[in-house]
UniProtKB/TrEMBL annotation:
Keywords: Endoplasmic reticulum, Membrane, Protein transport, Transmembrane, Transmembrane helix, Transport
Family, similarity comment: Belongs to the SURF4 family.
PROSITE patterns in UniProt: SURF4
Secretion signal span: none
Any one GO BP annotation for this protein: protein transport
Protein name from the UniProt record: Surfeit locus protein 4
Gene name in the database record: surf4
Gene Ontology CC: one annotated term: endoplasmic reticulum-Golgi intermediate compartment
Entry membrane topology: Multi-pass membrane protein
Localization per record: Endoplasmic reticulum membrane
Listed transmembrane segments: 59-82, 89-108, 176-193, 200-216, 236-257
Length: 266
């Protein structure tokens, strides 16, 4: 117990110091993969169009519509989220982009990439929950019957989906470091999923994931003409988006459906 007090105090100090800036940083990280992918659609317009046309045999017009929809949907959604305008519509649009790409690029049959896409969806759910909070803040003086159920379950669903990213990072080999990493990582994702010591666990996962991302997905060290450059870049920005989702958990807390919230009733 004595070891937990300093860590909890440190996390509270961190939250007080970053309260004003953390939500903005979280949103920027969260939309980073959509922003990068939208820009990539612009610069690789012909390559993306030719891939869709060849893979699905859908013809020039539908392939062009697919690329255009991805480009405008992602860049437009990012602009709306960063400007705090029509955030809910922007989130639904980005949900649609995730679903469209999951089918178009056959991600549905690749469990690792599917779990990462679901983790992205979890981040968007948390962003939706945040937008509901901001909407209600305009009526702060009006008596309330408590936190709305949709927001609670958005936060729960967002937390559960976010931890899918970490399940793709587990390595099943007999080395001591790998076993230790798996044990610590599993404990932390369970804490976030059930909402116990949530902010501290999410902040620890942010630091861990940030270190892994910079070390393993350093796309800037690989020449741009090599295929590995694009692969690492894709991984880097997807991971950065999940970090953004975790930062929203740190900023907003776990929500009503969590052990942290239930402890207040006990």
């Amino acid at each position: 117990m004595s070891l937990n007090i300093p860590s909890s105090r440190a996390s509270r100090v961190f939250l007080r110091m970053t309260k004003q800036y953390l939500p903005h940083l979280a949103r920027l990280c969260l939309i980073s993969t959509f922003l990068e992918d939208g820009i990539r659609m612009w610069f690789q317009w012909n390559e993306q169009k030719d891939y869709i046309e060849a893979t699905w045999g859908c013809g020039y017009f539908l392939a062009t519509c697919f690329v255009l929809l991805n480009l405008t949907g992602q860049l437009g959604g990012c602009v709306l989220i960063l400007s705090r305008n029509f955030v809910q519509y922007a989130c639904f649009g980005l949900f649609g982009v995730i679903a469209l790409q999951t089918v178009a690029y056959s991600i549905l049959w690749d469990i690792k990439f599917l779990m990462r896409n679901l983790a992205l969806g979890g981040g968007l759910l948390l962003l939706l929950a945040e937008s509901r909070s901001e909407g209600k803040s305009m009526f702060a003086g009006v008596p309330s019957m408590g936190e709305s159920s949709p927001k609670q379950y958005m936060q729960l669903g967002g937390r559960v989906l976010l931890v899918l990213m970490f399940m793709t990072l587990l390595h099943f080999d007999p080395s001591f470091f790998s076993i230790l990493q798996n044990m610590v990582g599993t404990a932390l994702i369970i804490l976030v999923a059930i909402g116990f010591k949530t902010k501290l666990a999410a902040l620890t996962l942010v630091i861990w994931l940030l270190a892994i991302n910079v070390y393993f997905n350093a796309f800037w060290t690989v020449p741009a003409y090599k295929p590995m450059h694009d692969f690492l870049k894709y991984d880097f920005f997807q991971t950065t988006s999940v970090i953004g989702g975790l930062l929203l958990v740190v900023a907003l807390g776990p929500g009503g459906v969590s052990m942290d919230e239930k402890k207040k009733e006990w």
